Structures are given as C-alpha cells and as structure tokens.
C-alpha cells in the first residue's frame, strides 16, 4: 500500500472546506439571516422597489452613492434608479451570514454580479433585528471583489438562495 509522504497542499484543503453545499448556507451561517438576505436580493430580481424598502431600517446608512445615504427614504429614493429598467443592473447573494449579537445584530456578505454575470463587487451588510421581529438593513456598503471571490464565484450560482 502506498502512503503519502507529504500532506495535501494547504490550498486544496482550504478550497474543499470553502465549498458550501449548493442551495444551502454553509454550516456556520445563520439560516434565517441567509434567507432574509436572499429575499432582499430577490426584490432586485423581481424589480420591486417597495419590497426593497421594507428590508431597510428607518435609520439605515447605505454607502452606495457619492455620499452616505441616511434613512430609508433617502436610500429608496437613490436606489429607484436601479429598479427602473426591465433587467436588473446587478444581482447578489450571500456567502456569509453570521450573528454578531444574537437576536440583535448580524452581518451578511457576498458577491455582486453585473447583468452579464461577471463578478463586479462584494457587498457587506449589517442587519438589526427590529421590535417587530424582522431583520432589517442598518448599514450597507460594497467594495471590490477579492481574488478569492473571483476563484469562488466565477459566475452567479443559481442555487445559492434555493
């Protein structure tokens, strides 16, 4: 019997560990929050600005324009531009969903894709559980996709939110 004298390269072990089962959040992710982020992203796919607004906290801050957008009304007014055309200008889904302070604060993050399916950015969202029991976006910002994102997300995964 042949035995390996060298351990598997660390990159192979890490790559295998980083691959979640299709259609399910990774084991360390909060499933309720994962679904909430998926439902939030679905407002863009369905082209439903009013539904988008219901996910945003009254005190939300979004870093999506030339200056931070403060409050649900300002966020919704700015984001209207992304809901006017028949085709969504971008899409997203989570690959991270974690509770920071259970039943109070949480974080989601994941890839953002252009209409052609190309990876264009990464989003980071802080959620707050409100008095009515719903998670709403308190802080949202994006940034460039990392080289690791390009490896993990070469194209949108249609199963990510199923």
Automatic annotation (TrEMBL):
List the Pfam families hit by this protein, alphabetically: SnoaL_2
* Keyword Cell cycle attached: no
- The SnoaL-like domain covers 40-136
* Basic and acidic residues composition bias: residue spans: 148-162
- Output the superkingdom of the source species: Bacteria
Q: Where is this region: Disordered?
A: 138-162
Its signal peptide is: 1-23
Q: Which residues form a coiled coil?
A: none
UniProtKB keywords: Signal
Q: What is this protein called?
A: Nuclear transport factor 2 family protein
Native source organism of the sequence: Roseateles subflavus
């Amino acid at each position: 019997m042949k035995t390996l004298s060298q351990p598997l390269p660390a990159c192979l072990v890490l790559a295998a560990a980083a691959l979640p089962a299709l259609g399910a959040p990774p084991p360390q992710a909060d499933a309720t929050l994962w679904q909430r982020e998926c439902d939030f992203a679905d407002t863009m796919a369905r082209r439903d600005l009013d539904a988008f607004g219901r996910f945003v906290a009254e005190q939300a801050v979004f870093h999506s324009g030339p200056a931070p957008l403060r409050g649900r009304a300002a966020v919704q007014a700015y984001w209207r531009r992304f809901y006017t055309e028949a085709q969504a200008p971008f899409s997203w889904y989570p690959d991270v969903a974690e509770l920071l302070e259970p039943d109070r604060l949480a974080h989601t993050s994941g890839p953002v894709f252009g209409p052609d399916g190309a990876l264009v950015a990464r989003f980071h969202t802080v959620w707050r559980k409100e008095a009515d029991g719903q998670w709403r976006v308190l802080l949202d910002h994006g940034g460039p996709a990392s080289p690791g994102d390009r490896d993990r997300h070469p194209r949108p995964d249609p199963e990510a939110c199923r």
